[in-house]
Structure formats: structure tokens, C-alpha cells
Amino acid sequence: MNVSLKRWNLDDAAYLTRLCQRVDRLYLDYLPQPYNITDAQFFISNAGKREGKTGIYRAILFDGQIVGSISVEVCSDVRSKDSNLGYMVLPEFCRLGIATQAVNLAVAEAFSTFDILRVTAEVAEHNTASRALLKKCNFLLEGVKDCGFYKDGKACSLCIYGLLRRNYENHRKINAWI
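Request: output the structure for the sequence above.
Response:
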């Protein structure tokens, strides 16, 4: 299985449009619906301006084909040493280990690019697949926000996962010896 990440460029706008039209929206509200080529061009343009300054924004490739998107965005103000991880994968490519590899690649790049102490991911409590993925990637469950998000007329709990730089580096050292 060949999973890699690449920077988004305007030539990818049609792929991003397809991705955002087909992704499972059960846990998303921020994407325009319907998502069109102009939305994709806007995202790619903004991501390019912020790339390496306040975040990394990548297409997830599986055997050379764009199958998802992932970003790590650095927070601001008193949270400037924290960052937020977000990802989405086309439904037919879920549960194949692609997102797990993509998260590991994105986290490695974020820690090597930015002076951050942690990467944070917030996940709906009932999103067991994402919760399992984050655990596989050595994120720890740090807490649960009761009524942490509101979707389709229902308040749901939000799980907060974190990966500290020191734990990431220790894990890398241990794995280097195995």
C-alpha cells in the first residue's frame, strides 16, 4: 500500500471538488454544500498562502490517486504551541489504513515544520473509527466535552485527543530500536 501526501495545487481543484461532494458529512458542517470548483479553488489558494506559516494542507494519495485531505493548523494566541488536526477520506477508502498512514505522515511533518508542543484532534464520541485511528497513531484521550458539538438537531459529545511532541519523539526513539 503506497500512501503519500502532497501539497494541494490549483490543478487539483476538480479532485478536491469530487472529494468534498462525496465525503461522509456526518461529522462535517463547515464545507459548503453543494461544493463546487470555485470552493475548491478558494480553499487551495488560501491553503497555499498559509502553507508552512500557520499550517500544512495536503492531499492524501493512495497509489498516486487523491483519496482524501488532511491538515494540521497551528493555533494562535495563548494556544500558539498547539495545533489542530483534521482529515477526511473518500468512503470507499475508509478502514484500509490509509488515514492512519496519512495522520502519521502529517504529524511528523507538523512537528518538523512548526515549533509546536502538541497536535490536538477533536472527534465525535460516536465516531469510533476516527477514535481508533487516533489511538493507533499514539494520540491519548484527554477528555470528553459533553454537548461539545451540535449536528442535525442533536447535541453530541466531543472527544479531545492529543499527541505531545515529547511522547511523539519518545515513541520514535523506541521504534528505532525495534
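The helical segments are 13-22, 37-50, 98-113, 128-136, 165-177.
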